[in-house]
Structures are given as C-alpha cells and as structure tokens.
C-alpha cells in the first residue's frame, strides 16, 4: 500500500479523504495538531474502516517535528495538505496567526518534502481566490482577484508559492491545487461529519443545529441580491464527493500525468441560493426550519459557482450526490452527535 501523508487529516474534509484513500487502497498517515478538530474524528474513521489510522499529533509549522514524521514513516509517496485555519472573520482579527499557520505550514512542508525527495502534493485551495467574479460560472482561467480577507489571501499566496516553485526549475515537486466551492454534508455512516468548535462559520451546521433546537433561529444575510430569490448563490458540494476528488488528484500525480502545477475547480457546476439550500434540507428531512431575513453581511460574495469542465475532462472527476442527499447526511450526523453526547 502506498503511503499518503494527510495534514489536517482529523478535520472535516481531511477525515473524509482519509476514509476514501483507504477504500481506494492507499495507506493514509494523519498529521494534525487538533487545534480545529477533535479526537472523536479518529474514532469515527475507525468505526467506518475497521482499523486504527496512524496519527502524528504535531504542528505543520514545526520543521523538526515534521522531519521526524518523514524519518519515521520513510516511504511517503505523496502529501495531501489540508492543515490550515479557515474562519474568515477570525482571520480579519488575527491576520498574523493566519499567515504564520496557513502560509508558514506550506513553506515548511515543501522544504521538508524537498529534503526527503517526496515529489507529489495535493493542496487544499478555495474558490475565495476568485473574489467577486465578473462572469459566471467561474473557470480555472477566471482571474484571481484581490482577496477580501486574510484567510482568502493565504490561499492566494499559497497558490503563488506553488506556482513560483514550479517555475523555479529547482524543484521536482509537482502540485495540484483543488479550488473547493462549498463543502457540505457528512459520511453516509454518520460516523464523521462537520464538527465546528464554537459558533459555526458555515450555513449547514447552523441549519442542523437550529433543526436540533441547539440554536433558536437561522439568519439569512440579505434577500435583495440579484438572484432568483434575492439570497446569495453558492455551489454546495457533498464532502464525500470532494474527498474522492483528492484521491483522483493524488492518483494523477502518482501516475505522472500532471504538469508541474495544476488547478482544478471542485464543485457541482450548479449554484443554489441560501433559501434553496434551506428548503432542500426541509424536503430531505421533513423538519421545518425557523429562519429570518437579516441585513447583508459585509464581505459576502453575491453569487459564485463552478464550471467543472476541466475536472471532468482532465481529472475524470464528477460529483454524484444531490443537494438533498448532502443535507440528509448532515442531519443524520447531527442526530448521531446528539446521541453520542447524551451517552457521555
């Protein structure tokens, strides 16, 4: 079994990718400092795959600790790099923390990869690099714009670092940057899912927590945008589909089919409004949601969704899950969380 190092592998997208890697015949090794994840995700992975996964509890900005992992594991053939802080609001308040962690961890990882001659990297990027696009849907040729938050800028800077490295002529590292749209949902087993620490930053945990009575009400930020129902449009992609995209990307690298640096959008290719997402949840679960319309939120992009032609044609990847299926899985995960918490 080929060994793939997964940084941030205990997190939301990371844990689902670890499962998909295992099921595709790889041996994932997790690196995570648990600053934005919980130990229970490891238990969830074990419940799905029936075995423990190697996990190194280290910080990716620490070169000495990272070097130890590479020495210990020895036969790593590729890296999937998720480890990053991801809260837009927090990044505005604490920009240095975000640059140190998100940019610093990538630079450190690349340096250690070069030391140990590990040449394949899949990077967790984001559609935030497109800013407020002038035309929809966005393709990989859509201009990258000035970021509207330090978080978004860390993704843009990391992409620039990978591009500079590819163009330097002094590196044999090949990278694929996956630009995610809006990951939602949970594993169909309900053993792993999105586990926000504190107040969620994303819509779906607000939906599920409101449905469960943990939160009183959802606020929809603005209903006066130029969209069919006035609410923002996003491309909601099931997290299991997204996880599978990482397996396809690492395989492309390992089969030496990739250029020195490549970018792919990962989404469904379809936009849904916030209200459509809320109503999809209600249809999928039979639970009515208490929501209200509030004022616009500063920094929100009115509408964005992906053109996925490149991923379909070059990666051979396409999403398969519907919005309702993603919402149902998120609700099953919420119910599982409540059951497991009740047992404690």
From TrEMBL:
InterPro entries: NAD(P)-bd_dom, NAD(P)-bd_dom_sf, UDP_G4E. Pathway: Carbohydrate metabolism; galactose metabolism. It catalyses: UDP-alpha-D-glucose = UDP-alpha-D-galactose. One of its GO terms (molecular function) is UDP-glucose 4-epimerase activity. Pfam families: GDP_Man_Dehyd (PF16363). GO terms for cellular component: cytosol. Keywords: Carbohydrate metabolism, Isomerase, NAD. The keyword Acetylation does not apply. One of its GO terms (biological process) is galactose metabolic process. Residues 5-328 form the NAD(P)-binding domain. It is an enzyme of class 5 (isomerase). Its cofactor is NAD(+). Its EC number is 5.1.3.2. Gene3D superfamilies: NAD(P)-binding Rossmann-like Domain (3.40.50.720), UDP-galactose 4-epimerase, domain 1 (3.90.25.10). The keyword NAD applies. It comes from the Bacteria. Homodimer. Belongs to the NAD(P)-dependent epimerase/dehydratase family. This is UDP-glucose 4-epimerase. It comes from Pontibacter fetidus.
């Amino acid at each position: 079994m080929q060994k793939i190092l997964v940084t941030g592998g205990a997190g939301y997208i990371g844990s689902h990718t670890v499962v998909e890697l295992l099921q595709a015949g790889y041996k994932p090794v997790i690196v995570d400092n648990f600053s934005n994840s919980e130990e229970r995700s490891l238990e969830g992975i074990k419940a799905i795959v029936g075995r423990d996964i190697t996990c190194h509890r280290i910080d990716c900005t620490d070169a000495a600790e990272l070097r130890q992992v590479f020495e210990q594991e020895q036969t790593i053939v590729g890296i999937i790099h998720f480890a990053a802080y991801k809260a837009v609001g927090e990044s505005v308040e604490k920009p240095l923390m975000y640059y140190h962690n998100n940019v610093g961890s990538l630079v450190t990882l690349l340096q250690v990869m070069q030391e140990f001659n590990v040449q394949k990297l899949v990077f967790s990027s984001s559609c935030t690099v497109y800013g407020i696009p002038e035309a929809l849907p966005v393709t990989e040729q859509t201009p990258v714009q000035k970021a509207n938050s330090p978080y978004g800028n860390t993704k843009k800077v990391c992409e620039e670092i990978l591009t500079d490295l590819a163009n330097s002529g002094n590196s044999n590292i090949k990278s694929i940057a996956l630009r995610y749209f809006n990951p939602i949902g949970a594993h169909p087993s309900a053993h792993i899912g999105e586990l926000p620490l504190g107040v969620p930053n994303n819509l779906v945990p607000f939906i599920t927590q409101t449905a469960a009575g943990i939160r009183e009400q959802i606020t929809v930020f603005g209903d006066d945008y130029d969209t069919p129902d006035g609410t923002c449009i996003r491309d909601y992609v099931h997290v299991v589909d997204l996880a599978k995209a990482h397996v396809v990307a690492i395989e492309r690298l390992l089969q030496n089919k990739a250029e020195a640096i490549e970018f792919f959008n990962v989404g469904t290719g379809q936009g849904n409004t916030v209200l459509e997402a809320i109503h999809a949840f209600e249809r999928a679960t039979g639970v009515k949601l208490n929501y209200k319309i509030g004022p616009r939120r500063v920094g929100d992009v009115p509408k964005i969704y992906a053109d996925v032609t490149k991923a379909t044609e070059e990666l051979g990847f396409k999403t398969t899950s519907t919005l309702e299926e993603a919402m149902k899985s998120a609700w099953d995960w919420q119910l599982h969380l409540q059951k497991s918490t009740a047992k404690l």
